[in-house]
């Protein structure tokens, strides 16, 4: 009988030691997991930021929805402290011949996530005409 009780005590002692080791190893791993999660949240945040091409595509889509006019091209694109600034060429009025169609340049402002925060028309011109502001001796 003493062997049985001694074996039971040994088994309980081993279980207790194993349990304590598991708790100690879990506690030691928790700070690492905390570091990983903060690192991964920074990584996720960086991944959640849109790429420049995503910003361009989304800006064109948003401008088209707001104005009802078709963007033809993006003539400038710049990242700023507040987000992004674009200049988008838009077809305002289609005419025949096409060289007489009216185009406009819109300055579009976006937040860092690529959401449109404002826009304004900065010039309007016929497709077939050179822009006098930029074609001269600048």
From TrEMBL:
Pfam families on file: GvpO
Biased composition (Low complexity): 1-26
Region (Disordered): 1-80
Name the record gives this protein: Gas vesicle protein
Originating species: Streptomyces neyagawaensis
């Amino acid at each position: 009988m003493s062997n049985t009780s001694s074996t039971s005590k040994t088994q309980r002692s081993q279980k207790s030691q194993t349990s304590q080791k598991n708790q100690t190893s879990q506690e030691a791993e928790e700070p690492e997991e905390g570091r990983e999660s903060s690192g991964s949240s920074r990584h996720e945040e960086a991944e959640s930021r849109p790429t420049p091409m995503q910003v361009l595509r989304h800006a064109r889509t948003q401008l088209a929805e707001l104005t009802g006019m078709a963007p033809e091209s993006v003539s400038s694109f710049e990242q700023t402290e507040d987000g992004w600034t674009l200049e988008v060429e838009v077809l305002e009025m289609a005419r025949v011949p096409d060289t007489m169609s009216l185009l406009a340049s819109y300055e579009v402002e976006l937040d860092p996530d690529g959401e449109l925060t404002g826009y304004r028309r900065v010039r309007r011109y016929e497709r077939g005409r050179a822009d006098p502001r930029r074609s001269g001796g600048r």
